[in-house]
Amino acid sequence: MTLERIVIVGKPGAGKTTLAAELASRLSLHHIELDSINWQANWTQLPDNEMREHVSEAIAGAADWVLDGNYKAVRDIVWARADTLIWLDYPLWVALLRVLWRTLGRIIRRKELWNGNRESLRHVLNLDPNENLIVWTFRMHTRHRNDFPALFLQPEYSHLKVLRFRSPRETEMWLQTIPTAK
Question: Which of 40, 87, 96, 144 could form a disulfide with 44 if both were Cys (CB 3.0 to 4.6 A apart)?
Answer without folding.
Answer: 40
